[in-house]
Specification:
By secondary structure, this protein is an alpha+beta fold. It folds into 4 domains: about 60 residues, no CATH class; about 90 residues, Pdz3 Domain (Roll), CATH 2.30.42.10; about 200 residues, 2-enoyl-CoA Hydratase, Chain A, domain 1; about 130 residues, no CATH class. The strands form 6 sheets. A 7-stranded mixed beta sheet has the order 10-11-12-15-16-21-22, with helices on both faces. Strands 1, 13, 14, 17 and 18 form a 5-stranded antiparallel beta sheet that branches. It is globular. The chain starts with 5 loop residues before the first helix and ends with a strand.
Amino acid sequence: MVSFKRKRLLPFALIAASAIIFLSFKSIDFKTSKSLDIFFSFFRELNIFYVDEVDPEKVIYAGIDAMLNSLDPYNEFIPEENKESLDFQTTGEYGGMGALIRHGAEHAIIAEVYEGSPAHKAGVMAGDKIIKINEKSTKGLSVDKVSNMLKGAPNTELKLTVNRFGTDSLEFTFNREKIHIPSVPYYGMVNDEVGYIRLSNFTANCEKEVKEALKDLKKSNAKGLVLDLRSNPGGLLYEAVKIVNLFVEKDQLVVYTKGQIKEFDQEYKTASKPFDTEIPLIVLVDRISASASEIVAGALQDLDRAVIVGERTFGKGLVQSTRPLPHNAQLKITTAKYYIPSGRCIQAVDYAKRDEDGRIHFIPDSLISEFKTKNGRTVYDGGGITPDVEHNVTFYSRLSASLYAQNMLFDFATQYRHTNPEIEEPANFEITDKEYNSFIAYLDSVNFEYESQTSALLKELKKAAKAENYFDTNSSYFDSLAVAIDKNEYAEFKLYKEEIAKLIEEEIVSRYYLQKGKAEYNLNKDEVIDRCIEILGDENTLTQILSSNSKSLTFTFTNTPINSKSEYIASHSAKTLNPS
């Protein structure tokens, strides 16, 4: 006879109770009922008979993760202890010191300090190594753990011990504050008549930030506007509607949602008096612009209110809502698809239709449909917003990506900041040839390792040659080729000098002038802005683009969008940044 522990039956009892509650609220078919019965029975048997003690929470959470992994990637189970991260995503606010931190060899490192934050006012700088927090060592701790130690309720004391380049340990003592990450990190005039607003995310009240920027730009005599949504991953849907409302009349349909539960289907219309329906408007987008960014760009395109410039957007037409779960947990779940005024859905991937191997695919051209804008222009569904004026961005070289991923640019900028008291204004700053050569010398001093794609392929070729017994008789050819490749790898620093120099300059500028300075530097280097100025300055071009017989224009630039140089490379590296 088997003896059962009473406590081992408790998790099953709780799950069974939850099932009864679930069944009382929703009529389910036999297939669903059968599946739930199997699941509950499976967990009961596992919990009772498995040879070792089963951690019910761990097993259930693993099961939840597996269930969510079979759906689209935007669904998320949020236990009570992670609720703060959800709040930060929606509000852009948290309690802390106001800085980003990243992984270091032994200690987390300050990656960026927010202007006006407690850390900034106390004198903390990017590049500082965090040695202790409130007298507790951080050696070997993960970035997540260090970030949690730095966060806390506003007005609580934080004592920080750091190591800084060229100095001994420094100590800072200050109070945490409520940190708000602005949705508009930069705005300004790009010439005498064109204003520029960078909108980085759609958190609560971002419409107010954009409106305040618009008021200032109008006072500065802005007669045209560039709204930059590049690298903006989205956020709150209702904030996107309010952003559109700044430029179009009241009671205009902006977006509507359709899901499985028809009672949740909604139309979102502009609800207020607009700020300006006449100012010529360009919206900049790229392949990272997603979700709420696509609502704004797509709605303004469908209503023929703005010229969309840039790359085809990401293609996220799925809407997430949060549902409460027991014990203060939450489920962020995809509840609908959104459709913009022309009737098109911009979702690029159909997650419900997978092949036999479980792989997902983009919506095929054969299923893409035509739609019409307010003026009768032809637009398409099936994957993102296609710009009215397209430009192709040249990706960064493998060398630049390696420099960024290995923190060579960051560490050199740290050294530069502490050996040069001041630099020129962001718009005018450039490193000299001597300083660029100093960077190369710095790389030698820290044993920077870089392998070109050609070198990597040569290694694979050697393996294949050895496997087929071709290598020994041709080794001299391989040796000669390896020498030639090594020389070419060094020559890449000359070949990509302009590209690497810009990345160095951006990192250095951010040390002196923080986020606004970096945005101003990039704005001055961004050739697409010049094209936007041309379009906004030519009424005939604007009219032609927004007319019913217009066609997309294409032009190519070698630079990347404002504030997205580092963002793009960071998305392809292992570097992790945490707000603290």
